[in-house]
Amino acid sequence: MVMLFFFFVLPYANMLYISFLTRAYDEPYYHVATLANYANVLSDGFNWEIIGLTFWFAIVTAAATLALSYPVAYFMARSSSKRKGILLALVLAPLLVGVVVRSYGWMILLSDTGLVNQFLNWMGIGARKLMYNQTGVWIGLIHVYMPFMVISLMNALSDVDPELEKASRSLGASAWTTFWRVVWPLSLPGVAAGTVLVFVLSVSAYVIPSLLGGYNVLTAPLLIVQAVMDLFNWPLGSALAMVLFAVTVGTITLFNRIMSRAMKGIA
Amino acid sequence: MASIHIEEVTKRFGAITAVDRMRLDLQEGELIAFLGPSGCGKTTTLRMVAGFERPTAGAIRFGEQDVTNLAPERRNVGMVFQNYALFPHMTVTQNVAYGLQMRAVDASEVTRRVEAMLAKVQLNGLGDRYTRQISGGQQQRTALARALVINPSVLLLDEPLANLDAKLREEMRFYIRELQREFGITTIYVTHDQSEALVLADRIAVMMDGELHQLGAPKEIYERPASARVADFIGLANLIAGQVTSNRDGAVTIASQWGEIAARGGSELGAGKDVLVCVRPEAFTMSEGSGAPGLRREGDFTVVTGQVRELAYLGSIVDYQVEAAGGLSLRVQAVAGEEFPPGSPVELRFPAHKTWVVGSKPVSGNGPSV
């Protein structure tokens, strides 16, 4: 709780405070209360466009990691504990390397003369622009956040008793129907947890969009950092951050409400 | 309804043979209990009948239909799992309706049949509860209802009572038997509990090490076990090592190191064969004894004199450990009444028709096996 206070509540409170102060040029801000920053942020359509794009990235990343991770997680959940351990280590291994290093790794692979494009050339397909655009950001986000999704799903799927699938089959349901009527609904807690986690991480991602998007793709965190570092406008940056925070929390709350309706009956 | 035919079925997992050339035919409407210690292959066999496992060799037929390679959802089996495997995200009604929905029965018909079935298993009024909100006994009846409502060709029960407390278990035995008779459905009942098998089954299939050791009516299995292991597994048995001296149409005379024993046994047990004599603890008539400890034959009876070493009072019966001469120790159960305290000399009589000979290599020791 103490940790939470010092590292989470306090900085946010500070930022909230700054977001109501007046912009200054000779120091970070003047201690004069104003609503101008919020008026600025909320009235500028460009900001909303960026937040929209950021959410679009986050939603697609969450959906893509969900689709890619589900089979992996299911396979792991149904593996013997020994094999499960090995697979888990493999899934988590990328997290041992910092996100910056991994992004540079992708840059080596995806650049105009990178490995992937060399291969595409050799195949006669021809090189494609794979980074410093949205494609690069997609690849980076999905790769980096997939382990979080796998772990969330695996935990939920491990709790789904394999006997339930057998029971469903014996009652006349095909493997496909069994999945949709039994396994999928029972895994929803993991789906919800993983989706929220990946969504939040993607919304707040800074390194991946900046390195793999090469400032051709502007997301909300990049915009905030620009406001603070480049424009030296701390109050505006803070106000932007607070708006992003509020919209994100609102979205998650809505999502959780929908999910908890879908999960009615699950413990 | 359908008969079930298990034909030379073998199941191997890697180097392990779980079921070895199992052959068994169930008649229509019959209830057979697969009885055996854990790891004997009874559950594996059941899962092959259900379609969750494919036999390595052999075939399974329901009536005329070969189902060996048929997917479980196409076999029309009703199965009750040991942990019930009720769907936790569905209510009792939804659980029971599931199988009917899979059969595309129309909604009003589903409602009608589910309600009728819930009434049958005395769950009316609980339909809207989630399965974790009802008791173990109610869960077990939900599982039965879910399996029966689809009018399955065969009913498969995998240790269905193992998770219930002792009293409920006893009640449910009779309940399941009644339900099975009423539906007249061919049933395989897997259990490791011999008393459950004895109460429920038309016939018992005793399985050990992946093989069918004996198949017969409960009385036959209990009174005329096919081997020392079967005798040992079903109930309590005193096993006394000896050698056949004569065999006239199943009336067998045995020479043991303590004396001659009159017994009954299969005609295949010729003179000179090493055997074990199986006497159930309740086969003895116990009275006050006199004379030197020993064992002798009196016509069609065998008489043992010895001393009570220990006794345990079990309510309706008393459990004795009786020590005769030369290390022969017998376990005796007598109806409670007059008790013989430890140290008192006693005489035990047992008739030949309650003394069964099993052909077996002598096992170490000759004390009672529990």
Give an overview of the whole structure:
With 267 residues, chain A is mainly alpha-helical. Helix content of chain A is 75%, strand content 1%. Chain A has helices spanning 2-18, 36-43, 45-77, 81-92, 99-110, 115-123, 134-158, 162-170, 175-203, 207-213, 220-230, 234-262; strands at residues 22-23, 29-30. In chain A, helix 11 packs antiparallel against helix 12 (234-262). The relative contact order of chain A is 0.14. With 370 residues, chain B is α+β, with helices and mostly antiparallel strands. Chain B has helices spanning 42-50, 92-102, 107-120, 136-148, 166-183, 194-200, 218-223, 228-233; strands spanning 4-13, 16-26, 31-35, 57-62, 65-66, 77-80, 154-158, 186-191, 203-208, 211-216, 237-248, 251-256, 259-264, 274-279, 285-288, 294-298, 301-313, 317-323, 329-335, 345-351, 355-359, 368-369. In chain B, the strands form 4 sheets. In chain B, strands 6-7-8-3-9-10 form a 6-stranded mixed sheet, with helices on both faces. In chain B, strands 11, 12, 13, 14, 21 and 22 form a 6-stranded antiparallel sheet that branches. In chain B, strands 15, 16, 17, 18, 19 and 20 form a 6-stranded antiparallel sheet that branches. In chain B, strand 12 (251-256) and strand 13 form a beta hairpin. In chain B, helix 2 crosses helix 3 and helix 2 (92-102) packs parallel to helix 4. The longest helix of chain B has 18 residues, at 166-183. Chain B starts with a strand and ends with a strand. Chain A binds chain B through residues 161, 163-164, 166-174, 177, 181-182, 185-186, 263, 265-267, and chain B through 50-52, 71-79, 81, 83, 85-91, 98-99, 102-103, 130, 132, 146-147, 150.
